[in-house]
Amino acid sequence: MSAIPAVPRSARTRSWWGWGYTDAHPDDVECAAMGALLPGTLARPLPIPRIADLPIARPTVTPPPSLAHLATADPRVRAAHAMGKAYRDVIRALRARPGRIPDLVAHPTVDREVADLLAWAGEHDVAVVPYGGGSSVVGGVEYRGDAHRAVLSLDLTSMDRVLEVDTAGRSAHIQAGALGPVLEEQLRPHGLTLRHFPQSFEFSTLGGWLATRAGGHYATGRTHIDDFVQSLRVITPAGAGTSWRLPASGAGPSPDRFFLGSEGALGVITEAWMRLQERPRHKAAASVAFTDFHRALDAVRAIAQSDLAPANCRLLDAGEALFSGASRDGSSVLVLGFESATGPVGDRLASAVDLARAHSGRAETPPADRDASADSAGSAVSAWRSAFLRMPYLRDGLARMGAVVETFETAATWDKLPALIDAVRTELGAAALKITGHPATINCRLTHVYPDGAAPYFTVAVAGRPGDEVEVWDDIKAVAGEILHRHRATITHHHAVGRDHRAGYDLQRPEPFALALRAAKDALDPHRILNPGVLLD
Ligand SMILES: Cc1cc2nc3c(=O)[nH]c(=O)nc-3n(C[C@H](O)[C@H](O)[C@H](O)COP(=O)(O)OP(=O)(O)OC[C@H]3O[C@@H](n4cnc5c(N)ncnc54)[C@H](O)[C@@H]3O)c2cc1C
């Protein structure tokens, strides 16, 4: 077991209202150029919002002297903790309609302080919203309604240390508030990695990943945060507990599984022992073009059902391929990638490309295996990768042009996928036209693939009704949820339930399970202060 050095934090300024760093936001010219691609958007971008324009009331509670040093009522901090980072949040900031802003933001540094804050909140009818990186896209970190006297945002990011690394057992004891880069930087000296890279990696935390059952960007194999959990420490209003560190256990229902995905409604995750991996040393990537998207789906299914296990197997439809620069001729593109810490992967890549060719894919001969530190192979592959990281910034630029942008993801079995994807394109497209009077762009990519199905991710962009973008988004979201439900596709594959997916989640979960969840809430959170409205009422 070894001790871990401290890690410096980024000096760049994070946006309080939009994605990422302020210095990476598209400027007015870039926003206008994007808006010009969508008929009906504004002539010029909405101004960058100012905190001074928000309706920020004075806090209605004061913490006791013993906890006062942990909490702030600074309007800038409170505004930055009022919402997550969905389109809906960004447009509400732009339109100065943030909803209820927390009265206080607390930054506990140890478990005792978390427990004391929960006890104080329970006694004073203060709702507590656990907050990691604040990258929720489902209304997970905001408070809706007025049932509580006050709202406390419980920011865990001061608890961001890797406490211990067990190199022999390839696992690490990590505090829940560590942001992705902070966590990986502390593991790097050990040659190990958690290898969990959601698109939001830079601005989301271990605790947030665990509380939402996040999905990393690897297409197959171990990519869900669930796969890496060895043990969890959770603090609830009814007491704290830590599960045993075990490689596996068949002792009844799993306590870790119980808290995974609990979204701050059942307790606060403060620490976890996580399984690690060696850093990959071999990589190989290639892209395959398809004229027919449905043939491409068949190719992906064949690859997913083989034993090749690609790290990346991302099928982009023609719109998505065009937008990311992976193709300009109307083809769908399959981006394939392999990596390994132990041996060359070029043969696996070649076999996957052969399978794709057998389903009418067009591919160059794949490049040979290369050192993992080398630059990406293939222009379509690298074009897609850069676009992937830039996408959230562009979404905010489109929001400034008054566009409505909704991204939603799901998963379904192979027998249902083609009809589901077609229905989203046609039915949601028609609904968006009816709601806004403008044609929508709807793109699709597969983010994760399984032997028995896959996870499609949709992006819908359409000009909004100026000033009513939130209502338009809500209407489009409701139609999308209805289509998913009708096709027996999950309301979310990795974005969580939060408040925005409640209707779909309530329909999806079996009633005895809902009963058990309500009973668990009653037992663990008797004053109903933990993230009210998330997962259940
Ligand atoms: C641009 C963008 C890209 C994204 N890409 C992905 C992706 O690739 N894969 C993916 O899975 N998701 C993705 N997301 C969604 C989001 O990043 C994930 O849900 C992430 O896991 C949230 O982590 P966070 O630390 O930001 O949590 P927050 O947003 O702060 O919180 C999310 C939920 O977890 C609860 N919570 C947070 N910390 C704790 C804790 N310590 N204990 C108990 N409850 C807690 C909160 O109360 C809330 O309900 C993306 C979001 C954006 C904006």
UniProtKB/TrEMBL annotation:
Pfam families: FAD-oxidase_C, FAD_binding_4. Keywords: FAD, Flavoprotein, Oxidoreductase. Residues 97-279 form the FAD-binding PCMH-type domain. InterPro entries: Alkyl-DHAP_Synthase (IPR025650), FAD-bd_oxidored_4_C (IPR004113), FAD-bd_PCMH (IPR016166), FAD-bd_PCMH-like_sf (IPR036318), FAD-bd_PCMH_sub1 (IPR016167), FAD-bd_PCMH_sub2 (IPR016169), FAD-linked_Oxase-like_C (IPR016164), Oxid_FAD_bind_N (IPR006094). It comes from the Bacteria. PANTHER family: ALKYLDIHYDROXYACETONEPHOSPHATE SYNTHASE, PEROXISOMAL. Belongs to the FAD-binding oxidoreductase/transferase type 4 family. This is FAD-binding oxidoreductase. It comes from Streptomyces narbonensis.
